[in-house]
Amino acid sequence: MLDWKLDFTWEILPRLxxxxxxxxxxxxxxxxxxxxxxxxxxxxxxxxFRVLTFIVRELVEFIRSTPLLLQIFFIxxxxxxxxxxxxxxxxxxxxxGLHYAAYLSEVYRGGIENVPKGxxxxxxxxxxxxxxxxxxxxxxxxLPPALxxxxxxxxxxxxxxxxxxxxxVAELMHTANSIGADNYRYLEPYTIVGLIFLAISLPTxxxxxxFESAVRRKMGLxx
Amino acid sequence: xxxLEFLATYSDRFIDGTLVTLGxxxxxxxxxxxxxxxxxxxxxxxxxxxxxxxxxYIEIFRGTSLLVQLYxxxxxxxxxxxxxxxxxxxxxxxxxxxxxxxxxxxxGSIQSVPRGxxxxxxxxxxxxxxxxxxxxxxxxxxxxxPPWGNLMVEILKGTALVALISVADLMFETRQINNNTYLSxxxxxxxxxxxxxxxxxxxxxxxxxxxxxxARKIGRS
Lengths: 223, 221
Known about the structure:
By secondary structure, chain A is an all-alpha fold. Helix content of chain A is 81%, strand content 0%.
């Protein structure tokens, strides 16, 4: 019923592993965009400008409520309509970065809101500037509880990169699709892709859990 | 072509697609709920084997991408002599994928029920099944509903991927319209708004309502 071809496996494995490199680059690049943009989103919601806060809040809600796949298509195909031709890689990284920035901004927000009000007041009492307050008082305390969420979304972004295959980013899924189409064999490429995902995401998730508990211990916040 | 003309011309297809998306969503929610409940309970079983099966299911589905799972279910599973219609493959895969995430929520919510409740049920001489059904699960339901609402939105978003195995859902129809007209902003923009309306003004309020009803029923409003 099932014939797994070993020679075919060896033949396609190098291509898939090379493509896994692209997947990791896409995930890493997207994550960097998300980490920075997420910070922009959360800080914009903490300014005294009510209108800005409202717009950013609704934007975050909108991005979180709509499918990433659709956002990828939107950015890739609407760009040229307004004279902005984006390469698949650029469009993909923007889309995936924007999507996860919305999620990360919520993680940051949770972390910041976790810091007791007294800390803000104390920072003000010893005359720290806003930047100093964030950098030396708030962020060090907001970060440990946020780390778990940040780590989960790192794994999440990695697992969502196959969607970039639809606009032609040559990551794992895209490569597996073309191998499948060329050889009329889908068993090996798709199964290997699944195994590569497992081989990367399970240890990463485990490491993130370890890292998180180490940070918590260091901060004296053992659970 | 103005946007209104665009809508008038293609509204039928958007509506057809939306109906398929809603069908996929409803069925995927059923599959996910069943899978999450079963595997979440299995993960707390005494038997090591039962626990191992649950952990295997949860880790495999949480460790790989939904898209990989969809392709695998649709293109590879038939080679094992197990073929599904694309519509079925779509909601089953989406449901199983998010069921694995839901399993952790089920386990967490059951463990959040205070120990005293378990002991009291034991003292009242309830069987394990009675205890689960009448004491533990109703209380766990109240704590699980808020994160479950987020999971519902994720499932709705996840159904967009079934378009890639050619299920004619909203995502699929939108892509077709885009390919026929090159009116990308209109086509994809309309679809974004439809998904947003469903997530924000239908799924989320329904879950909030359920939260209130359950809290009242259990006397915690």
